[in-house]
Amino acid sequence: MERDGVAGLTALALPHPDGAAPVDTFAFGRALRADPRVSVVTVLDNGRDLTVMLVAGRPAPDSDAAADFQRDVHSLAGRLLPAGQQVLAAGPTARLTDLAEGALGGLWRVLAVVLLASSALLLIVFRSLLIPVKALAMNLLCVCATFGLLTVVFQDLAGPGADINVLLPLVVFTIVFGLSLDYEVFLVHRIAEHYRRGGDNTAAVLHGLRHTARPITLAAAIMAVTFGGLMFTRRLDFQQGGFAVAAAIVIDATIIRMVLVPSLMRLLGHRNWWLPGTRGSARW
């Protein structure tokens, strides 16, 4: 499909007033035909109010190259078509480009809502300023490490032309962040319970780690196997999603939750439970 350009077919609708002459597409069409990424350009007119250009691009519609080509086509249209001419794009490439832009644009709103809501809930539950900050930092570290592994495996090692599904960052972020936060609550709640009873932060960290390591590891193993099963499907987007979530769970349940979080809480000591304006917050 990528070779013959059919998969990258884009329809450009050029409306014009009813009864007016067809849109002058000569210069625009010539520029498109000269582009090595274009295999065929066909111009149609209904004789009344619409001119349609069918542009068959060579790049696969779900590739970065197709998105770049789509932007170049609109740029060319703005320069070579009559001033003020409206251009409406349709087809797989146009749809996926719009979807990618919408997903990436919404990612920052999702990120802000998730971080603010998570911080507020952790602050209320644990009555600590540093616990939410540490939790968000560790979760974001896990997400970044996951995206790094995903890029290495499915882009760098896969060779030229390999791409990651445009919706994957948004979906993986929400799933991974939620699972990481669950493991964080399991561990820190155990630590907080022991600290509240005895006030010894070091003993509380050891107690929490000893009583949550096994259930967190077992739960993570189940989730990793479940999502990892998607890697044996024939759909690349399922493979990428399964790999990303499984890798994130393994990273979080081992390096993050069993090493980094206990180490940080041990180093911070009583400051883990500090809350400004709360008397005796060092003892929770």
Descriptive notes:
InterPro entries: MMPL_dom, Mycobact_MmpL. It comes from Nonomuraea diastatica. With 284 residues, the chain is of the alpha+beta class. The chain has 2 domains: 8-90, 2-Layer Sandwich (Alpha-Beta Plaits); 104-283, Multidrug efflux transporter AcrB transmembrane domain (Multidrug efflux transporter AcrB transmembrane fold, Up-down Bundle). It has helices at residues 26-33, 64-80, 92-126, 130-156, 168-198, 201-228, 236-268, and strands at 8-15, 38-45, 50-57, 88-90. A 4-stranded antiparallel β-sheet has the order 2-3-1-4. The model is unreliable at 1-5 (pLDDT under 50).
List keywords for this structure.
284 residues, Multidrug efflux transporter AcrB transmembrane fold, disordered N terminus, Alpha-Beta Plaits, 10% strand, 7 helices
Tally the helices: what do you get?
7
Q: Largest beta sheet: what is the strand line-up?
A: 2-3-1-4
What would you say the CATH architecture of the largest domain is?
Up-down Bundle
CATH topology of the largest domain: Multidrug efflux transporter AcrB transmembrane fold
Short description:
The chain has 284 residues and is α+β, with helices and mostly antiparallel strands. It has 7 helices and 4 strands; from the N terminus they run βαββαβααααα.
